[in-house]
Amino acid sequence: MWITSSLTTALTPTAVALGNFDGVHLGHQQVIAPILPKPVTAQAQALTSSNLEQIGNPETSSPNLDPNLELIYPTVATFNPHPREFFSGQAWKLLTPPAEKAQQLSVLGVQQLALLPFNRELASLSPQEFVEKILVEQLQAKQVSVGEDFCFGYKRAGTATDLDAIASAYGITVHIVSLYKRQEQRISSSSIRQSLAEGDIDKANRFLGRPYTLIGRVDKGQQLGRTIGFPTANLHLPPDKFLPKLGVYCVEVSHTPEPSNLDTNLSSHPGVMNIGMRPTVKGTSLTVEVHLFDWSGDLYGQTLTVSLKKFIRSEQKFSSLDQLKAQIQRDCQAARDFFREIKN
Fold first, then answer.
1. What DSSP assignment string belongs to 54-81?
2. Rounded CA gap, 123 and 86, in Å?
3. ∠274-276-277 over CA atoms, to 5°?
4. Cα dihedral angle (70, 45, 144, 2), rounded to 10 degrees?
5. What is the per-residue pLDDT for 150?
6. Cβ proximity of 71 and 80 under 8 Å
7. C-alpha distances in angstroms, 192 versus 25, 128, 210, 273, 303?
8. DSSP classification of residue 276
């Protein structure tokens, strides 16, 4: 995938899905679907490969083709920082920070992520100017897809219908996608955040269409877990990652071995994770610690993907390390029982 925060380096022309897409949930996937590559004939595929060799595109896979065999790059155009962070002046935690968002979009088949710098200049563009300067001049959009609640331009004055009216004058096809619902509930980033904050992992995962993940590198912690028989991997996460309710979770852990440690094999390994302040040992900072069942490998410096499966309990303070150890044993048994049930 080609990722750019400068539209002067964007691959063009494009088919663009516009929005924040925080979480890349099932509703977002409906908006993105219209701009994804369609099956092409062998002749068209050959033309694509030939043209790619000529332009020397560094990182993208084969782009889409319109009926006239013109190269079209399926692109998600989103805003960085999040508009809420820009207007409030306060850091906004994300379900999918930029690197994770790019990863999820790539899985869907998106070939370019354009991170539009959300600054005073962009925020002051009128709907007409946004279409002219961003979509027409810089992205050279041939088609655009948005959700029916999409708003854009100065003070969010432009609607999806306005976008269609303005863009059509430039020959741009606009897809307006209806809001996606499941069991009469609207799927949104806000509803997923609320579910995660309440520990309702099942609902959050249903709306995402996949497990919610935490991705980070393993750092050395205080290694207290080793002293009570439960060694943990201390996960260092991106500072803008949204964390769910503090407590203990059933998780599955995987990672891609780095060149220096290719013999490490960790794929969908079950375990438990604790997110919290560790009040029993007078912790002073928030930590994310993962204990892997029946695992003895060295994970320091490795990047782990932790998939949340079930919330076990809220964080609590114990009067002694022995009580904490006994509770961790119960947590591990609960998690083992959970994984045994879902396999049967």
1. HHT-SS----EE-TT--EEEEEEEEEES
2. 9
3. 135
4. -100
5. 95
6. no
7. 9, 33, 12, 20, 25
8. E
Type of residue found at 52: L
Tokens for 266, please give them: 């960790």
Q: Give the residue from 209, 193, 208, 210 showing the smallest Cα distance to 305.
A: 210
Q: Which residue has the tokens 């050959």?
A: 46
For residues 291 and 231, the answer to whether their CB atoms sit within 8 Å is yes
Largest separation between any pair of C-alpha atoms in the chain: 72
CB 237 within 8 A of CB 290: no
What are the beta bridge partners of residue 251?
Answer: 271, 308
pLDDT at position 119, please? Answer: 93
Q: Which of 250, 266, 278 is nearest to 218 (CA)?
A: 266
Burial (CB count <10 Å: 0-12, 13-18, 19+), residue 168? exposed
Section 149-157 average pLDDT: 94
Say how far apart CA 233 and CA 201 lie, in whole Å.
Answer: 22
Q: Which of 79-83, 144-148, 227-231, 308-312 has the lowest mean pLDDT?
A: 227-231
Instruction: State how far the alpha carbon of 270 is from the alpha carbons of 21, 121, 233, 295, 320, in Å.
Output: 29, 48, 13, 10, 27
Q: How far is CA 110 from CA 34, 84, 285, in A?
A: 11, 25, 38
User: pLDDT value at position 268?
Assistant: 85
Rounded Cα gap, residues 13 and 64, in angstroms? 10
pLDDT in tens, 92-103: 999 999 999 999
- Reference 18, options 170, 130, 100; nearest CA is 130
Burial class of 112 by CB neighbour count within 10 A (0 to 12, 13 to 18, 19+): buried
Give pLDDT, residue 55: 37
Q: Which two tokens stand for residue 12?
A: 């063009």
Q: Per residue in 250-287, pLDDT tens? A: 999 998 655 445 445 567 899 999 999 888 787 778 99
Unique residue bearing structure tokens 């996949």? 210
